[in-house]
């Protein structure tokens, strides 16, 4: 999809007091396309909110370039910046920022008063979509925190902007309500919206397909999850079938290489067993030689006795 937000070498500094200058952004560059869900994380004071304000045209950078919806915002008159902001960007704030005297339906339709045009998306339909169809006439003080944030999301969508910027959208919500907001935001990504969310919520950060880590006004890491790519839904190709010979060879190799099989195989060739066999063979050979010697000795003795007896008989005959 096309690039919806582009920041190039953006710098922003603030002066605090007479001598202290804080560099909130130090040459930040970032591109976000339609269908991307980007979570910006980092410690307090790292520049996350300043980055969101600059991207949302709420603050002017000291240097660099900001492009929103294909329009370069640098140098635009304030009236043109405001128009671009209203038409191209939807905002979701941590504190909801709903007008207390207006109903949920009136708050959701509020941007249309400033746009001077009919709704791109029906406020009523949007509220029904976020689960508030039965709360259209309730004022903010009659709604829970999660319901107020859903009204704020409907308000951000009513002009059908391509870019949604959210600053800690689950910061004031309990975990169960926050999980519902995370699911709702992820659904917007699936519809092709570009989402940039500043958060400390781990579940929200994990739901994003891309994590941007900031520290001291700089992006120190920008990582994309494989689940966010166009091939995320593709199944892994099945492995090619192996032949029986290859499977047999593998099993043979596995037996030889595995600990239990190797031990079994090594019993035949191991030193202990081989040595035992050698000793057994040595004992057998030694025993055979000993028996042969004894048999030879017996034969020699018997022969000697016979010879002696003959000689003795011969002497007696002669006498």
Structure description:
The protein is α/β, with parallel strands linked by helices and 319 residues long. The protein has 11 helices and 10 strands. The strands form 2 sheets. Strands 6-7-8-3-9-10 form a 6-stranded mixed β-sheet.
Characteristics of this structure?
single chain; 10 strands; 319 residues; globular; disordered C terminus; 45% helix; six-stranded mixed sheet; four-stranded antiparallel sheet; alpha/beta
Sequence stretches where pLDDT stays below 50 over 5 or more residues? 226-319
Mean of all residue-level pLDDT scores: 78
| Rg calc | 44 Å
Structural class: alpha/beta
Distance between the termini: 137 Å
By DSSP (H or I, 4+ residues per run), the number of helices equals 11
Q: Beta fraction of the residues?
A: 15-25%
Q: Give, in order, the helices and strands.
A: EEEHEEHEHHHHEHEHEEHHH
Strand order of the largest sheet: 6-7-8-3-9-10
Tell me, briefly, the overall form: globular
